[in-house]
What does this fold into?
Amino acid sequence: MIPEFHSFGKILIFTGIIILMVGILFLFGDKIPFLGKLSGDIVIKKKCFTFYFPVVISIILSLIISLILYLLKK
It folds into this structure.
């Protein structure tokens, strides 16, 4: 097998796993009790507009993904 295809296959598998995890998060995100209720998340509610930015969740997910990538590189 050509070595370039071997590394490309690993990238495709890893990308598929990430897409699967995001899909599961979209399906079951409202059932996770702490999601969206952490202090530090930005919520702006107006009369006809609601803006939500999950700062803390973004940091936690970034740390988890960084740890997974670090462990995969070893």
Remarks:
- Strands lie at 42-45, 50-53.
